[in-house]
Amino acid sequence: MKLFQLVCSAVSRDLFKRILVSLELIVGLVLLYLCTGLLEKYRSIDQLMEKYADMAAVEPNDPEQIAYAQAHGTLFEATVMLTGENETGAQRFFGEINSLAYYQAVPMELAEGTWFEADVQDCQYLAVVPYSLRGRFPCGQRCELYFLETGPISTYVCGVMPSDLTFGNTGAVYFDDTNLSILLCPTEAVRDYTEGRLASHRYVKLDEIDPGALRVLDIDAVALVKDLIHEGNRQSMAAPGFLCITLLVLFGTALLGEVFLSARENEKDYAIRFLCGASVRKAVLIQGGVNIAIILIPYLLSLVAAFALKIRLYLHSTLWPLLALTMGSVVLSFVQLTALSRKSPAQIIGRRFRQ
Amino acid sequence: MSLIRLDHLEKYYNKGKETQVHALKGVSLEIESGEMVALMGVSGSGKSTLLHILGFLDSFDGGRYDFEGAGTSSLKAEELARLRNEKIGFVMQNFGLILHQNALQNVSLPLLLNKKTKYARIRPRALRLLQDLGIGEKADVPVDQLSGGQQQRVAIARAIANKPKLLLADEPTGALDSQTAEEVMQIFHRLNEEKGMTVILATHDPRIAAECSRILYLEDGRINETQ
Ligand SMILES: Nc1ncnc2c1ncn2[C@@H]1O[C@H](COP(=O)(O)OP(=O)(O)O)[C@@H](O)[C@H]1O
Ligand SMILES: [Mg+2]
After folding, report:
1. Which one of A9, A274, A354 has the shortest CB-CB distance to B105?
2. Which of B77, B94, B100 faces A14 most closely, judged by CB atoms?
3. Which chain A residues touch B120 with a CB distance below 8 Å?
4. pLDDT tens-digit series, residues A276-325
5. Rounded distance, CA B112 to CA B117, Å?
6. What 3 state SS string does A162-184 have?
7. Rounded CA gap, A263 and A268, in Å?
8. How many helices and strands in chain A, by DSSP H and E?
9. What are the b/e assignments for A238-250, b being 16+ CB within 10 Å?
10. Which residues have a Cβ under 8 Å from the Cβ of A207 and sit 6 or more positions away?
11. B191/B182 Cα distance (integer angstroms)
12. pLDDT higher than 90, residue B84
């Protein structure tokens, strides 16, 4: 308890200075985080380019493409109640709920509308309806599709297919020869993607995409690749990459400087605690507690910041540099403590206090 | 029974090395409880070395040191730490405060290190000490913003926080102007007379030494009672 109080009082001292140091560290770490995140993005874009490059080149009817459709799309057979003005009846559809990534990856022309209509706040799904149903479900309207199996689904009809396509003449969707088909895709993701698409600066605005939706839909990869291919953003990554490395070096130097500068001060405090009645063991323990607290507070804060950024930016596995830095600081502080415990406090007093 | 009894105390620095210094050459002396002793000598005569040993900051290489009638050479690090904490107060020339802590935190340090003091009593006690020394209103001020005289008062408050038997002061007025030095000396006198603390202070200043009841001269590591 008292040890805790000792450490607390040592850490809380001159709080302003401590906070400044902490902020400095946090800023550094966040920068570092952003930088590594950027680097990672750069790296992952290369990987994604590789992964998805051949996909766009897949010919219609290619069995690979069909396999992809079957693997990624959620196919279902549903009975939809058609409640038009003139007639009411039930009809069987093959529906497919798919990620946007899929529709992006596998190009398909629409007769009317676009895939990415916005303003669909209260709709659960976007629907692309077969050509034959365009009268009953006009493009650009909300309508409720009543599935016997699942109940009503609120949709926004964002497009009409060129014809009642069958399996044989499109690679886009799985169709059954005999049944009319309908495509449904969750509106959430589409809306988010729309905003991203409308953005002037693709790369930044992409950050605003809801990562939750993206994760569910496994969407970012294709979106990124498309963006980069279409807008030639790839070259512009080199500058931030260079910036990252520079900042990393600067930050690393600053951190080391911080640790070594405080060493002198720590040595004095250590001797004073010894003088006031702490044994060497206890004085080292207190200093260790102080060091750990000073290291951990900013690191924990920056970890939170990093996590927030991670979620915002939807970056993968970029926490390791943070962890490495933390571990490095802990090791460094440990080395410092061992060095401290080997010194005679009386000598420190003699030297530092000119006795 | 004397508070301190030294018998042919020896101290070497860097023993066995080329840079070996024989800092104390068989120092023998006795100091009774309640004395106020001045330790004089030129720079390098071994005053600080002697005070460090008396205050259990440093070990010695030969001879005997009895504190309150008991030998100290066999004491373990933890026991020495407890002696430093409870029986010894140490005041230094340039105060030896933790500069980025405030006065209250500095004075609380020996109280926090004392197992017998309840946590709830630390703050009020530290405040009382600062008030007694006339700097109660500076309790929350970081010590590096205090004047030299005020810092030395904080250091004295910290030294006497656990009501020690022995107050060791290594050139306590060396960094102060003569008026502040006199005020600080008054505090030592008060502690000696009113609280019965034994005071040993190292100084070059003959006027300071003259205020003490006894003067010891250290000369090249040897004690000389009269000069
Ligand atoms: N840590 C040390 N290492 C080596 N020599 C020391 C050390 N401390 C003091 N000395 C030497 O011991 C002698 C006594 O020093 P000290 O006790 O500091 O004298 P004073 O306080 O009277 O000036 C001096 O010769 C000094 O150089
Ligand atoms: Mg000295």
Report:
1. A9
2. B100
3. none
4. 999 999 999 888 888 777 777 666 766 666 566 554 443 444 466 667 76
5. 7
6. CCCCCHHHCCCCCCCCCCEEEEE
7. 9
8. 12, 7
9. eebbeebeebbee
10. A312, A313
11. 14
12. yes
Which CATH number, 3.50.50.60, 3.65.10.10, 3.30.160.160, 3.40.50.300, labels domain B34-60+77-224?
Answer: 3.40.50.300
Alpha-carbon gap, residue B130 to B155, rounded angstroms: 10
Task: Give the distance (Å) from ligand 2 centre to CA of residue B41.
Answer: 9
d(CA A304, CA A310): 10
Q: Which amino acid is at B189?
A: H
Specify whether the CB–CB gap between A149 and A216 falls below 8 A.
no
> Scanning every residue of chain B, which has its alpha carbon at the shortest distance from the alpha carbon of A278?
B81
Q: Which residues of B touch A1 (CB under 8 A)?
A: 119
Alpha carbons A155 and B224: distance in angstroms, whole number: 104
Residue A89, strand partner residues: A82
Largest Cα span, chain B: 52
Which residue lies with its CA nearest to atom 6 of ligand 1? B13
Confirm or reject contact between B142 and chain A (CB < 8 A).
yes
Taking the C-alpha atoms of residue B26 and residue A338, their distance in angstroms, rounded to an integer, is 34
Q: Which two tokens stand for residue A109?
A: 């022309």
Q: With CB atoms and an 8 Å threshold, state whether B101 touches A13.
A: yes
The encoded tokens of residue A57 equal 């080149």
Q: Is B43's C-beta closer than 6 angstroms to any atom of ligand 1?
A: yes
**B203 pocket-lining for ligand 1 (C-beta < 6 Å):** no
Q: Is the full-model pTM beyond 0.90?
A: no
Q: Is B215 close to ligand 1, i.e. is its CB under 6 Å away? A: no
Task: Identify the closest residue of chain B to A272 by CA–CA distance.
Answer: B96
Instruction: Give residue-wise pLDDT tens across range B46-73.
Output: 999 999 999 999 999 999 999 998 999 8
Is A20 at the interface with chain B, CB within 8 A?
Answer: no
pLDDT digits (tens, 9 = 90+) for B128-144: 999 999 999 999 998 98
Ligand 1 atom with the shortest distance to the CA of B218: 22
Where are chain A's structural domains? Answer: 2-38+237-352, 119-209
Cβ–ligand 1 contact at B21 (below 6 Å): yes
**Ligand 1 in contact with B172 (CB < 6 A)?**
no
- What is the DSSP annotation of A265-313? HHHHHHHHHHHTT--HHHHHHHHHHHHHHHHHHHHHHHHHHHHHHHHHH
CB pair distance less than 8 Å for B113 and A1: no
CA pair distance A274, B110, nearest whole angstrom: 10
Spans of all domains in chain B:
34-60+77-224
